């Protein structure tokens, strides 16, 4: 029964989509705040949302439509012009890292 409940919870999360609220703890990707380093700088006035549970699922939402985030740009903003983005696991949106 416990496994069934866990599977149901995971399925519900995947089917309905996961929405990350704005704030440093919710969209933190190891040293990178996607609200601040992504949306606030690349699409001012938007909020970070997780639309698909993979590395490409992050979007900036303006109330009408989603805008794509350039994670490389977010890394450069945070760590300097020589920084770049990479991920550890495509199916884990929180696995982004900056070099």
Which features would summarize this protein structure in a list?
two-stranded antiparallel ribbon; 3 helices; 99 residues; globular; alpha+beta
Word description of this protein:
With 99 residues, the protein is α+β, with helices and mostly antiparallel strands. The protein has one domain (18-98). It contains three helices and five strands. The chain has helices at residues 2-16, 34-42, 71-79; strands at residues 47-50, 58-61, 66-68, 85-87, 96-98. A hairpin with a 4-residue loop joins strand 2 (58-61) and strand 3. The model is unreliable at 1-26 (pLDDT under 50).
Brief rundown of the structure:
The chain has 99 residues and is α+β, with helices and mostly antiparallel strands.
Gap from first CA to last CA:
43 Å
What kind of oligomer do you see?
Answer: single chain
The residue-averaged pLDDT reads 79
Radius of gyration, in angstroms, nearest whole number:
14 Å
Largest sheet: 3 strands, antiparallel
Number of helices: 3
Major β-sheet strand ordering: 1-2-3
CA-based shape: globular
Number of strands: 5
Specify the structural class: alpha+beta
List the helices and strands and how they pair.
Layout: H1 2-16, H2 34-42, E1 47-50, E2 58-61, E3 66-68, H3 71-79, E4 85-87, E5 96-98
Antiparallel strand pairs: 1-2, 2-3, 4-5
